Amino acid sequence: DLIVHVRDITHPETILQKATVLSVLKNLNLPSHLLDSMVEVHNKVDLIERYKPTEENALAISALHGHGLEELKEEIEKKILTATGKKILTVNINLEGPQLSWLYKEATVQEVEVMPEDGTARVKVIISNSAFGRYRNLFPN
């Protein structure tokens, strides 16, 4: 669904390495949308003082120090959701009904926050548009 190209930005041949990787990927006859949505990651930015990527849409990280990893995670999540046609939603459910079981079967349940005082829960899911449509038809409330 997604290509993440991580480069050692401190390597003296980093630009040549990028060109080589892109050439290999193009020769694999991958779908163009996969190449167009590729995430470019510049690693080891902690070794270059005040590093700013000159390439459009490149993310600067230091895997060693954790710098930029949250932004990278968010970008990957956003692109995967777009590529797969899914979205992240939080739905309120009644725990006495079949909704939670249905969500576990038809979606990816990320979090369940139970409200014991009224027998409900807030459920955070990753779900396709079609599955969410089925959910709304089955559980209109």
UniProtKB/TrEMBL annotation:
Name of this protein: GTPB6 protein
Annotated Gene Ontology cellular component terms: cytoplasm
PANTHER family: GTP-BINDING PROTEIN 6-RELATED (PTHR10229:SF0), GTP-BINDING PROTEIN HFLX (PTHR10229)
Pfam families hit by this protein: HflX_C
Residue ranges of domain Hflx-type G in the record: 1-84
Entry GO MF terms: GTP binding; ribosome binding
